[in-house]
């Protein structure tokens, strides 16, 4: 369980700096860290003790990057073990102020940085690894991207004001069937089946007791994902062979063959007038006795959308997204199109006075996935999740498949303390091949998902948790 150390060192860097402003060795009293792969932010505590500089003049403060190095017996140089960001920093003085102790609470550099940043954007049928690279490059440029790989799986996703780490760990890693981990200041993102085996794992690498657990907390074999909404064509008049001018005194009124409770958007063929200062207005009214309620009364509108001239398509279709509303399905509603100013704009017609348009209706997105074999073996286990940012059939379907993947059987975990130098050096996100473990269902490959480090004096203790990649 305990490994002798030849040396240990803490280096502190100001944000953006490449050289440390302080290096602590003799004053480094203790370090306790729990590191993980896949989703959780690592946390640790560091204790420094001294009676004078460097702790007196060179202050470590929140936001500084910290790098913890160790040199195990048999190693020729110091090796970086953990890269972190300083968070809470506490000074304690003994009676008389003879000894000063500095307690630093820290969290890992990569996942913490990603959790600080909020992402926005949309991607359609892009490789998951490409999406990860784009998000990290845009939102967290100080995080290294050299270990982000394409994974051979595509994703369609819309991101609106979410933490970047949540998007990566909750959406993109499952969608790409990928490992998400960190290596110093680099994000590691690669397909699970492409991760190379670091080395075999034998009983001699571990101290007893070795625990093998089968945990069914995350077992799922039937999934339902409720996404946001998409739109589909409800009614149209597609022919466009002429145009007609509408302005603030001239309008076009036409009826839409729709018995839906809502019209999401009306698309019109437009040819805007470049001299106009005002745009176009689309209004929606219910039907009454075969006509619009009152085209002259805007208070009678069920919904309304105005677009400025710069948002009107030139000789193409312009989409007028209507705000939420409710229509009585008894009669088909009416659309009123008019200019917002006296100049006005041209809209398309079929040459016989019929406006060229497309009317779209919204519908909820839903996808299901299930594993019959798993249900028969472990009983049915349902998962239902809602994510309104999933805004296409493809995105919802991908999310359902991702939620089911690797979850059809209990998660197989192996936990033990590291005995050999190579076991102490294993990092979360690395894969080993267990050999000579005398348990029938332990085999294949296992990913290190958690490493707990405890350093004190000249001794290092390392606790390891592996999960079978088939159940991860």
Task: Describe this entry's structure for a reader.
With 472 residues, this protein is mainly beta. Among the domains are: 2-108, Thrombin, subunit H (Beta Barrel), CATH 2.40.10; 239-355, Jelly Rolls (Sandwich). It is built from six helices and 31 strands. The strands form six sheets. It has an eight-stranded antiparallel β-barrel with strand order 1-5-6-7-4-3-30-31. Strands 15, 16, 18, 23, 25, 26 and 27 form a seven-stranded mixed sheet that branches. The longest helix is centred in the middle third of the chain and has 13 residues, at 164-176.
What CATH architecture label of the domain at 239-355 applies? Sandwich
Q: Helical region count?
A: 6
* Strand arrangement, major sheet: 1-5-6-7-4-3-30-31
Task: Assign the structural class, choosing from mainly alpha, mainly beta, alpha/beta, alpha+beta, or little secondary structure.
Answer: mainly beta
Give the biggest beta sheet. 8 strands, antiparallel, barrel
Q: What would you call the shape?
A: elongated
At CATH level 3, the topology of the domain at 239-355 is Jelly Rolls
Query: How confident is the prediction overall: mean pLDDT?
Result: 89
* Number of E-state strands: 31
Which runs of at least 5 residues are low in confidence (pLDDT < 50)?
A: none
CATH class of the domain at 239-355: Mainly Beta
């Amino acid at each position: 369980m305990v490994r002798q150390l030849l040396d240990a060192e803490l280096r502190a860097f100001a944000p953006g700096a490449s050289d440390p402003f302080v290096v602590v060795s003799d004053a480094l009293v203790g370090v306790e860290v729990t590191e993980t792969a896949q989703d959780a932010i690592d946390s640790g505590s560091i204790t420094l003790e001294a009676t004078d500089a460097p702790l007196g003049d060179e202050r470590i403060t929140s936001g500084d990057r910290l790098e913890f190095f160790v040199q195990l017996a048999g190693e020729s140089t110091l090796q970086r073990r953990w890269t972190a960001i300083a968070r809470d920093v506490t000074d304690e003085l003994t009676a008389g102020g003879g000894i000063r102790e500095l307690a630093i609470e820290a969290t890992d550099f990569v996942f913490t940085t990603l959790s600080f940043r909020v992402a926005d954007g949309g991607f359609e049928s892009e490789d998951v690894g490409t999406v990860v690279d784009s998000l990290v490059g845009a939102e967290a440029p100080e995080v290294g991207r050299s270990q982000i790989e394409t994974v051979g799986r595509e994703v369609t996703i819309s991101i609106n004001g979410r933490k970047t780490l949540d998007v990566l760990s909750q959406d993109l890693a499952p969608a790409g069937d990928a490992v998400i981990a960190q290596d110093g200041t680099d994000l590691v993102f690669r397909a699970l089946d492409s991760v190379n085996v670091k080395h075999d794992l034998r009983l001699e690498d571990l101290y007893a007791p070795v625990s093998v657990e089968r945990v069914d907390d995350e077992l799922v074999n039937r999934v339902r994902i409720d996404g946001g909404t998409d739109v589909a064509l409800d009614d149209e008049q597609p022919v466009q062979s002429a145009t007609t001018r509408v302005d603030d005194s001239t309008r076009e009124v036409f009826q839409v063959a729709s018995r839906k409770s809502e019209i999401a958007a009306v698309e019109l063929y437009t040819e805007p007038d470049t001299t106009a200062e005002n745009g176009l207005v689309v209004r929606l009214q219910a039907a009454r006795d075969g006509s619009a309620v009152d085209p002259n009364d805007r208070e009678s509108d069920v919904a309304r959308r105005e677009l400025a001239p710069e948002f009107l398509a030139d000789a193409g279709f312009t989409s007028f997204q209507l705000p939420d509303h409710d229509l009585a399905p008894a009669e088909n509603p009416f659309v009123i199109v008019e200019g917002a100013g006296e100049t006005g704009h041209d809209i398309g017609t079929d040459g016989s006075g019929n406006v060229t348009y497309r009317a779209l209706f919204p519908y909820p997105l839903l996808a299901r996935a299930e594993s019959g074999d798993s249900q028969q073996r472990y009983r049915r286990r349902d998962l239902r999740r809602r994510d309104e940012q999933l805004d296409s059939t493809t995105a919802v379907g991908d999310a359902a498949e991702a939620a089911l993947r690797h979850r059809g059987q209990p998660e197989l975990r192996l936990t033990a303390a590291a005995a050999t130098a190579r076991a102490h050096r294993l990092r979360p996100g690395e894969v080993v091949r267990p050999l000579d473990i005398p348990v029938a269902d332990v085999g294949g490959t296992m990913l290190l998902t958690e490493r707990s480090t405890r350093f004190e004096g000249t001794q290092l203790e390392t606790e390891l948790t592996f999960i079978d990649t088939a159940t991860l």
